[in-house]
Specification:
This protein is of the alpha+beta class. The chain has 16 helices and 23 strands. An eight-stranded mixed beta sheet has the order 1-4-5-7-6-8-9-23, sandwiched between helices. The protein has a three-stranded antiparallel beta sheet with strand order 16-17-18, with no helix packed on it. Strands 2-3 form a two-stranded antiparallel ribbon. A hairpin with a 7-residue loop joins strand 4 and strand 5.
Amino acid sequence: MRISALAVTGTLALSVAVPAGTASASPPSFPLGGPSSRCTTLSVAAPAGTEVESVKGVRRAGGTITFPAVAPQPAPPPATGVPAYCEVTVTLTHPGVGDRAHITVWLPETGWTGRFQAVGGSAFAAGDFGPGLATAVKGGYAVATTDAGVTPAYLDVGWALESNGEINTPLLENFADRGQHEMALVGKEVTDAFYGRPADYSYWNGCSTGGRQGYMEAQRHPDDFDGILANAPAINWDRYVPATLWPQVVMNEERTFPAPCVLDAFTQAAVKACDPLDGATDGLLSEPAACAFDPRKLIGKAVDCDKKKVTITAADADVVRKIWDGPKTPSGERLWYGVPVGAALDALAGTKADADGTRSGAPFPVPAVWVSTFLERDPQFDTSTLTYARFAELFEQSRTQYNRIIGTDDPDLAGFREAGGKLLTYHGTADQLIPTQGTVDYRQRVERLMGGTDEVDTFYRLFLAPGVGHCGGGGTGPVPTDPLAALTNWVENGKAPDTLPAAVTDADGRTVTRDLCRYPLISTYTGHGDRRAAGNYRCTAGSEAGDIPPLSTSTPDSGGSDTSDGDTDSDRPELATTGSSTTLLLLAATAATLLGCGTLITRRTRRFPHNRRR
C-alpha cells in the first residue's frame, strides 16, 4: 500500500467535490452595465472586530486556468471549461494585531445554482490556491477561501513566533478558527451583493485540515453553514499532530529503522491474516482495531528490498508493534491512537538511506514543524533527539497549551443541531496520516453527550471506508464517489444518507464498488456473488473486538461547554511516503495534503425562519 507524489497531489485536487444536480434558483439579475460593472463596484461591511482595508473586483474570462506550484507541491493540472467569473479580493485587518487576511471570492457570471461554498486549506495553509475555487465555480457555486492572515504555504510557519520567541497567538487564532468564520461572513455578503439576493444554501467541503476547519465551524459558529462535508478531519489537533511523530521517536529510541519494503511486509501480512473477518477475502479491513495480528510472526522472514534479500528481525517487529499500539508514556499510559493496521506505515515511519545504506529517520514535516516551532519554539530543533520521556512531556504541553485554541474536539454540537445544520464525514480505515480511531472517538463522545446514536444521526453521520487512505489517497479500497451530493440531498431534500456509494479501480483494471455503511455499522459480505459488487454486501453490526476504549476525559473549556481537554483525538497533518528513493520527496508532498479544502452551504432566512445564518 504505497502512495505516490502524484497520488498525493490528486488528493488535494479532489478534496472539493461537486454535487450532482442544482439548487432551484432563479437566474441572477444584474443592474445596467452587466456583471462586469457589478464586479468592480462591490463594497463590504467589516465583520465585528475587523477593518476592511480594500475591496478589489476583477472580471476573469474563465476557460483554461493554470495554478502556481506551492512548495513542496508541484503545480496542479490546469482546470478547463471554467466559466467567466468575477474575482473579488477583500483584505481585512484586526486592529492592534497588524495582520492582513485576504479573502478571495469567485462568482460565476452564468449558471449560478444559488449555492455558496467556502473552501478550506491543507497542512499549515489556511486556504485554497485555486483548484478548489475553479472546481466549485464549474459546479455552479459562488465560492470563497482565505489565507487567514498567515503565510499562504503548506509548511512555512515563520508567522508563528514573535521576535521575542513567544507564540503569535492572534495569528494562530486566525489559522485555527477566526479566519474561516470571517470568510463565511464576507463571502456570503459579497455573493448577496453580486447577485442581488442571498445564497439559498451554504456548504463546507474539506478534508484533513479542511475537515478540521469544518468541525470547528460546527462547534463554534453553528449558524454559518447549512451543510458541512468534513472528511478525514484533523480534529484533536493538539494531540493528533504530536502523536504522528511517535513512529520517529520509536525508531530513534530503539535504534532500528526498517526499510519501506520491510514495513510493507508487516502491513500485507496483517491484512492477509485479518482480511476474512468481514466475510470477504478482498484485501480490505472493515475493522482494523479487531485485527490481533502479532508482528513477531514475521521474525526471520526474508523480503525483497530493491533486489536484495532482507531478513526481518525481532527489533523490526518491536518497532511495528509500538507504532500500531500508538504513543504511550514511559509508564505505559496510552496517549493517542496508533497508525491503523492495514495503513501504509512508511508515511509516518519514513526513513532515508546514506550512501553506505545506513538508514535514519525522515520525519513527516507537519508534526516535526509543530514540535520544533510551537512546542520547543526553536525552528532548528532536531526532533531525532527526542526520548520517550521528552516526547510525553511535549505531548502534554501541546494538549494543555493549545487544546482550547485549535483542539477542535468539543463534542457539544447542540447549537449546530438547533440551527438545522447537517454534518457528514467519511474517514478511511487505512488512513496513513490521521488515525481513523480519533474520529470514531469524537463521534462516540458526541453520542454520549447528545442522546445516543439515533439522535446524533439526525444531524451528524460518519462513514468508515475500508482500505481507503488519507483523503482517498494511498489505499486500495473504494472511495466515496460523490459525498457532497449526498450532503446536499440531505440538506435540501431531507434525505439522510444510510450509505455512501464508493468505487475504485483495482490492480487488474476492474471496477470495485461498495456502499459504505454509516457508523457504527460495517460492510459485510453476504457470502454470495461477485466480491467486487456493492450489491453483495450488507450493513451489519460490528464486532466488540473492534472497539478501542476511549482516550478522552471531559473538562469545561474556556466557553463553559463540555469538551475534551484530556486524552482525545488529535489532529495531525497527513502525508505519505513511498520507497527509499522517493521518501523525502513524498514526505514533502504529503505535508501539502494536510490542508484539505472546505465547502460551505447556507440557506436563506426567508426559507428557514429559525436559521440565523445570515
